[in-house]
Structures are given as structure tokens and as C-alpha cells.
Amino acid sequence: MFDNLTDKLGGIFDRLTARGALSESDIAEAMREVRVALLEADVALSVVKDFIDRVSVAAKGEDVVKSITPGQLVIKIVHDELVAALGATSQGLSLSARPPVGIMMTGLQGSGKTTSTAKLGKYLTAKEKKKVLMASLDVRRPAAQEQLQILGDQALIQTLSIQFGEPPVAIAKRAMKEAKLGGFDVVLLDTAGRLSIDQELMDEAVAIRDAAGPAEILLVADAMTGQDAVNTAEAFHDRLGLTGIMLTRVDGDARGGAALSMRSVTGCPIKMLGTGEGLDELELFHPERIAGRILGMGDVVSLVEKAQETVDEEKAEKLAAKFQKGQFDLDDMADQLKQLKKMGGFGGLMKMLPGVGKVKKALDSQNIDESMLGRQEAMLSSMTPEERKRPALIKASRKKRIAAGSGTTVQEINKLLKQFQSMQTMMKRMKKHAGKGGMPPGGMPPGGLPPGFPPMGGLR
Amino acid sequence: MNEVITEQKRGWLGRLRSGLSKSSGRLAQGVGDIFTKHKLDETSLADLEELLISADLGVNTSAKLAGQLADHRFEKDVTGDTVRQALAGDIAAILSPVAVPLTIKASNRPQVILMVGVNGTGKTTTVGKLAKIYKEQGLKVMLAAADTFRAAAIDQLVQWGTRTGVEIFTDAPGADPAAVAYQALEKARNEGMDLLLIDTAGRLHNKANLMAELQKICRVLTKLDPDAPHDVIMVLDATTGQNAHTQVEMFKQLVDITGLVVTKLDGTAKGGVVVGLADRFGLPIHAIGVGEAAQDLQPFDAGDFASGLLGLDR
Question: To bridge B259 with a disulfide, which of A398, A414, B284, B303 should be the other Cys (CB 3.0-4.6 Å)?
Fold first, then answer.
């Protein structure tokens, strides 16, 4: 979602870098452009002004003028200020209170509270190993309580039994009580959507907070929101004392200025990002990474971490050993495909790399077919273990059989085998480099990224 | 719809003004501040430009408006009110060409209107409101529930049908939306309807598969009537920021949007994005939503909107 802002700042600083030494008027021009970019990205006016002031002061220091690469220095200053504005460090959920720890979800209608609640429940269960109870306090929207129950069933997270006619405050109390008796670590309280100017409902939210005493009060907000994000965040913070913000629909292409302004205006950290329709698609918010992404430096940290998370360490080691020996068969290729898919396919991978915007647009326009990965997997699965070990066995009649088995064509099989061959060639080259005690230029650590796919180093 | 506005002019103006009061209040106050504190110099103009941006008008439109004020209007000290009047005139000039009401042609029988947009913008509600308006004008209206994805969407539309006494075509949840649209048009033709309003599921504009589904609906409809859908109306949430531009761009590119309806102008959102959209795309804005009741869907009037946005009486 931050791609557009990245493009914008990227363009400005490309120009600065090209010019060499920076004059004060250069800085002023750059700041004008930064200001416009931030405003276009829906960052609130007051936030933009403060930000520009801080950056201008820092940029007009002598270091910039004397610097050999002034453009780089300006980027660094803007980056540091962006990180500061987004919150200097990443802040997770505070779960250290005495269990059961309450987490209250609030926000406008349609911002995505119920889905986010289920996502958070799944996240806490899977990644934090917590025993989670979810309770819907939304007695206004028809079927809202049932919706959370269904999502809970899907994600295998327990939900509080529904008692029709029970008011929200009573539900909150019952949830906390049952969680205590049942030995739950965390209770997620999903509340009804409300306008910040709806006095009655805001009073109700305060009553829920007072009854449940949650450790976290999160505002769930749509990343596409414009300048109004600030008004809403301010109003909710004033009444409820928010502890954090959860940004949804980050899988859209909104520029995400709302994140920066809500954080700046309320002082509340942005804790989580909703990044898709699936219940797994929830990520921790890391200011460093996002600031880097805004500046076109790429979210390399995220990429590496995600790769580490998905790649089975043991397999990676085995693969590394094979690389060293220059052995690489179709089984290994199948493994690599699986790992690539886990990382969100090409699209997911691209989003995390520097220079994203332009490349991604180019990819989008070429309509890169993500389903290709699935087809390739199908082809590999239709081969016998023997064939995967010794691809040379695969001749015309075997190709026909594999094509029929995988619902593909012989041409596609040929394409796959050709791709495999070029991967193998690359392996051999890597072996030579490894022999000299180093990785090939631009190469990733063994098992970190699948080779044979578009060379990532050459994207910029 | 023009009749509706004449009859209810006072009422609708009042509602619009109160609906817009949050945005206009802040904007008007801001304009006043700038021009009682400063002369109309470059700084004031820059501040004005940013103020318009902060009302979601967008960078380009705001620059254009500020530039117009600098060129033609003022040389000496001016009051905030004078500036507001001038601004309202300029904004109205941008909006006038797009203030085009929806027209229903008798020759279309039925005229097919497809409602599209991202999630949660108010498509179903807008369909319901339109049904009521046209039913009251004496047209034979049918609704089609082609949002088979969101669980309660069909029920929601059925309720609107019941409330307005309009016929509705539904299928089971999970049914192919294109099939629903096709069958609904077939039925509407057989029953001699004047108007068929098709409600679709919300979809993010960057999800290729969901956008393809929308294209399929359009394609299938042309098999029964080469001109269908006659109107593809995109519903925009006024709380959306500049992403509204991308939304319109993408939807327009893929399903040939013919007009817009802007909803939720009664919230705290400023709604200025409408000016930027008009400036850039020139798409007709058929109506705006300023409340939850059916009569809160109103034809879009450039002068009233501009005045309302800047807190001026007209």
C-alpha cells in the first residue's frame, strides 16, 4: 500500500542524487515535493507540517552541504524522521498482565473489526501459544455474533456462548469471568461499530472498558481512509484511551498516510496490519521496515524473516549441501516452488523488495500468472520419484503421460524442463564460486531464495 | 429526480448543509484564519492550497484552485468571506459539468443499472434508495441480488424490496453473480419492467479475479441486450481519501463506469475528494448520500454542493 509514496519519494531523490552537491534551494524543493507526496498519501496536514519542519532543520545542517552524496544523506534524515513519526520501535501487544488479559477491539462500522478479531485470535494461538477466548459484544448488527462464532470454528478458537438479549457490558463481564475459570490467557472482545460522534454508543464503549479492564484497547481502522482518519482516531482516543491501532485492508493499494497521521496525532503505536482476506493474513507493524519501504529502500528485513519462517531449516541445509556438490534434481525444484508459494508467490515477494513500485507495475501489466506455480507443482507431482531423480528419463511418451496426469500440455512440460536445466546450470556456476569461498554476485544465502527465478538483484 | 429536488428543495438543502457542516465548518474556519492573519501573498496561497488538500480535494485540484485565486481575484487585503465566495464559484465551475442526473429512457425497457464499488461503501443501501425514488415516479422497478458472497447481503436487499414494494430477483448465497444478473434481466424483460437495478458484491479494485467476475456480469448481460448494462454506477464512500482516484481509475478501466454516487457525506469526512474526481475524470455524479433515509439520496447539484462545502448560504 505504501508503493505510491515510495515511487514519489524515489523520483525526488533520484533527481537529488543525480545533481551531486545540494544547495539550500534544492533542499527546499525536495521538501516541497515530500510535503506534496505526504499530502497526496492522505497524511494529515498538521502531521506533514511538523514532519517537514523537523526534516528541513536537520537537512540544512552543514553535514549535508559538505557531504559527498547529499541525496543519500537527505534520504537518511527523512527516513529517520519517518521512523520517529511512526514510532521508534516496534511494539507488540502487551500480554504480560495477569491472565486472562483482555483485548478490546473498537472502530467505525465496516472497518473490519470482526475479521481482525478472528485474525488476532489465530495469531495469538499459533505464534504466541496463547489460549484464546473470543467474545462478540456486537448486539446491534444482525448476525455479528454468529459471524465471530463461525470464524472461531474455522480457526479453531473458542468463542463465548451466545446468549440472546444479553447487553454488551454483561457479555464482557461474563467473558472475563469464564476466561478466568477456564484458564484462558487472552480474551478478545469484539465490539459493535460506532461513529465517534455517536454519544450514546461511545458511552457504551467506555462502560465496556470499565467492566472488562482490558490491557489493550485497539482502534481498527481502514487503510484507505482519508484525512478523516485523524478525527476518528482522536475522538476514540479521547474517550477510551487507546493503546494501539490496527490497520486493515492493507492489501488494497491505498497510500497508507492514515497510518502516519493516526500514530502522530494519538501517540498510539500501530501494532498490527491486516493484509488479506485469509485469517492468516495479519502482520506485526515494524516502523523501521515501513519507513524504509516508503523511501524505496525495500522491506528487506521482512523478506528475510519471512523466508526464514517458511523455509524448513533442515531442507535448507540439505539443499545447501546439494548446491555445494552441484547436485540438484526435480525434487528440489518442487521444494523450492512450495517455499515460493508460502511466501505469497511472486507478487508477495515483489512487494518486499526495493524499487517495488515500478517493477510491480510492470509485472502487473504483464499479467504474471501466479497460477503457473500451481501448474508447475502439478507437473512435478505427476512424475515418478525416479523421473524426478533423473530428469533425463523424461522423453516423449513420459511427457505425454505427465501432461495428462497434471492437466497440462507437453509444451508446458518442455518449458518446465528447460527452466530446470537453466537452474541446474546456475547451480554449477554457484559451485564454482563456492569453491572460491564466496557466493555469486547478488546471490542469496543457500535456501534463502529459490534460484532460477528472475534475478532479484537486477530489479532496480 | 429533478422533480424530487424541486419539491424538496428546502428540505434537501437543509439536510445537505447539516450533513456537510462538519467538513464546511472546519474548512470555513481555516479559510477565515488564513485571510484575517495574512495578506493574499504566496504564503497565504500555499496555506490555502494545503487546506483544500486537507479537505481531501487532492493536490492537483487544490493547486488549480489556489492558482485561479492568485491570478484573477485578489491583489490587496481580502476577507475570508470574499475568498470563500470566490472559491465556491470556482469549485462549482469544476463540478457543474458533472452534475448530471441519471436519466431513464423509456426505449430501454428495462434500463439495466449495475451498482459496483469497493467493500462497505453502501451499494445495497443506494440500490434500495433508488428503487424507492423511481417507484414513486411510477416506474416498474426490479432489484437483482447479485451480491451472493456476503452472507446477509441478499436478506438486506430483500428487506429493501419489501419496504419499497418493489419486485426482487434472488438466488441462493454462493450462486454465480453473472447467472443471477442474466436471469434477472430475462425476468425483468418478460414482465415489462422499466428498470432493473443490480446489486453486486464489494470488491477491492486491485483484486484481478474479483474484477474479472464483474466483467463477466457485464458480458453476460450483453447477450440479452447489446446495450446492457446501460449504466454502471460506482458507489464511493466519502470517508475514502485520495485512493478514491485509484478506485475510479481501475473500475473505469475494467467495467466502463458511467457515473458515480457518493455516500456517507453525513459522517465526519470532508467529502472534498468529489471535486478532485470531477476535475480528473469528468464522470457524471448522479447523486450523493447524506443520511440513512431514502430521501437522503439526492441529485448532485454543483452550486449547492460547493456552497455547502464552504459553509455559505445560497
Answer: B284
3-state secondary structure of A322: helix
User: Could you tell me if B246 lies within 8 Å of chain A, comparing CB atoms?
Assistant: yes
User: Does residue A368 register a pLDDT over 70?
Assistant: no
- Do A370 and A432 fall into the same domain? yes
Residue pairs between chains A and B whose CB atoms are closer than 8 Å: 87
The parent domain of residue A328 ranges over 303-459
CA distance A385 to A191: 53
Contact list, A35 vs chain B (CB under 8 Å): 50
> How do residues B232-255 score in pLDDT, each as one tens digit?
999 998 889 888 999 999 999 999
Q: What is the pLDDT of residue A107?
A: 92
Q: Is B243–A44 a contact, with Cβ atoms under 8 angstroms apart?
A: no
Distance CA A112, CA A108 (A): 9
Which helix (H) or strand (E) segment holds residue B141: the answer is strand B141-146
In a domain, A94, yes or no: no
Question: What does the angle CA A226 – CA A230 – CA A232 come to, to the nearest 5 degrees?
Answer: 100
**Min CA distance, B138 vs chain A (Å)?**
33
Residue A253 contacts B, CB cutoff 8 Å: yes
**What is the C-alpha to C-alpha distance for residues A9 and A12, in angstroms, rounded to an integer?**
5
A254 in contact with B, Cβ within 8 Å: yes
Query: Which chain B residue is nearest to residue A232, measuring alpha carbons?
Result: B268
Contact status of B11 with chain A (Cβ, < 8 Å): no
Is B120 in Cβ contact with A110 (below 8 Å)? yes
CATH number at residue A358: 1.10.260.30
Global pTM value: 0.69
Say how far apart CA A314 and CA A324 lie, in whole Å: 16
Nearest residue in chain B measured CA to CA from A233: B268
Residue from the list B151, B242, B268 with its beta carbon closest to the beta carbon of A42 = B242
Radius of gyration of chain B (CA): 21
Task: For chain B, say whether A224 makes contact (Cβ under 8 Å).
Answer: yes
As a CATH number, domain B2-98 is 1.20.120.140
Instruction: Please tell me whether residues A53 and A190 are part of one structural domain.
Output: no
Q: Tell which of A140, A227, A248 to mutate to test the B interface (max B CBs under 10 Å).
A: A227
Question: Which segment, A59-68, A212-221, A383-392, is predicted with the most confidence on average?
Answer: A212-221
From the CB of residue B93, how many other CB atoms can be counted at a distance below 10 Å?
14
Domain B111-301 sits in CATH 3.40.50.300: yes
* A410-449: pLDDT as tens digits: 999 998 888 888 877 777 776 665 544 434 433 333 333 3
Same domain, A359 and A439: yes
H/E stretch holding B229: none
Q: How far is B242 from chain A (nearest CA, A)?
A: 6
Shared domain for A133 and A78, answered yes or no, is: no
Q: How confident is the model at residue B152 (pLDDT cuts 50, 70, 90)?
A: low
pLDDT tens, position by position, B182-225? 999 999 999 999 999 999 988 999 888 899 999 999 999 999 99
Give yes or no for residue A100 having a pLDDT over 50: yes
Hey, which of A175-184, A219-228, A389-398, A406-415 has the most confident mean pLDDT? A175-184
- Which residues in chain A touch residue B241, judged by CB atoms under 8 angstroms apart? 42, 224-229, 254-255, 257-258
Q: How far is CA A1 from CA A168, A221, B58, in A?
A: 35, 14, 18
Record: contact A39-B50, CB cut-off 8 A: yes
Q: Is the dihedral of CA A50, A56, A58, A59 positive or negative?
A: positive
Residues 82..141 of A with a Cβ closer than 8 Å to B: which?
Answer: 108-110
